[in-house]
Specification:
This protein is an alpha/beta fold. The chain has one domain (57-408): Alpha-Beta Barrel (TIM Barrel). The chain has 14 helices and 17 strands. The strands form three sheets. Strands 1, 2, 3, 4, 5, 14, 15, 16 and 17 form a nine-stranded mixed beta sheet that branches. Helix 7 (215-228) packs antiparallel against helix 8 and helix 13 (369-379) crosses helix 14. It is globular. The protein starts with a strand and ends in a 17-residue tail after the last strand. The protein binds zinc ion (ZN).
Length: 484
Amino acid sequence: MSDFDLVVKNGKVVTPYVGVTDADIGILDGKISAIESSIDDDRAKEVIDVEGKAVFPGACDVHFHIGIYHPIEESAENETRSSLVGGVTTIVSYFRSGSHYLERTGSYKELFPEVVSRTTGHAYTDFSYHIAAMENSQIDEIEWLVEQGVGSFKYFMFYKGMNLHGNNTDPKAMTMTGDPYDLGHLYKYMKKVKEMQDKYADKGRISLSLHCEHAELLRIFLEEAREKGIDGLQGYHEGRPALTEQLAITEAAVLAKATECPVNFLHLSSQEAFETADEFRRLNPQLDVVTETTLHHLALTWETSYEPEGRTWGKVNPPIREAKDNDALWAAVEQGRIDQVVSDHACVEEENKGGLWEAYAGFGGTALLYPLMISDGHHKRGIKLEKIAELVSANPAQTVGLYPKKGTIAVGSDADLAIIDLDKEQKVTADLLLSGQQFSNFQDYEIKGWPVMTIRRGELMYKDGEVVGTTSGEFIKRPIGVHK
Ligand SMILES: [Zn+2]
């Protein structure tokens, strides 16, 4: 009898909130069962010697879009494969009824089991879902959803009177229901999520995520940008300016304070958005507020996103902005005032990335989660390795109720590991990322620090650029404390 199924030897183990130590990791039944200065080879069935490379906890990419613009099965397989490249072992995907996903609405009691069963058997990473209540009756299903393992929900501030592709003012365009989707809906929604958080207060976090752009301001700014004929991503940035984020955050914050609902301000894209969310949190230490930004809002501007002539690969909501916004967001990350960094991965077909106003919003990025943070965060800005692990693994795992099953390297935690060669240099190409998306607007981005192995629950999934594991990712019910 061996003590371990697998021993990962000679690693520099990066533990969030703690630091970096030289250690061997013993794995049994998919969990970490020992962390010791040295473990004898004969105690293990299998040994992987990582020869001094960094061993991080697998990243938790908690802002993801499986099933957007594609069938769920295909999307899960292609996009979680791409996650492995970035050292990601768990994804938490946003799902809502309505257009661009299942193209229908109704009861989540019918829709949600379908979503989970169509993902199961197709995901390389472990997975979970955030759900958006798009109509009144779905708010009444929140308690049932928590019992099914959904520990976080979503509201889109900009759907009031908006359509993803432009300025269609039909409020039913996205939700496919006749119910009002407005601040009244949000207020009721927050009260319900807060009620659930109170019910399970000692067992884990239950929260509402907010996409903050202001529908009424978007209407006039988009109109103006179109009239002016500004092309490309600059036009999109001007059509959805930071002011719209600021006002949406302010409105949502008033309701969050009134209801005491735990909230997550998603993908803060601008200096103004960050400052507004940050000020709200500083003034209200009694509230539970999480701040998030994305790789692209940290790293790209409308000028540096790779855009071939006539394409709008980098169109995304909220838009990619300017260098001053990159700088402000990096400073916030360094100061610990942004809690988590995610990819907001949404695979879009190249044929749907033509003219600015017709193009679909979103693009992939999960394969760059650790690489970009290590390259630009650690190497360029001196952010400590354990802090990088906090930003992409431990903090997001806490936000969504996965910690410490996911998000750390500790005895008893799932054996999810990203082995990273901190000195390996790569220039980004779409081919390296193993996604279903044929292009990358990070093309030619120079990265230093690249995952060489990804291990999920003790199984080697990815090695030296190739997938070696299977689509055996499991659905994880959250908060884990409620579902033990
Ligand atoms: Zn998103």
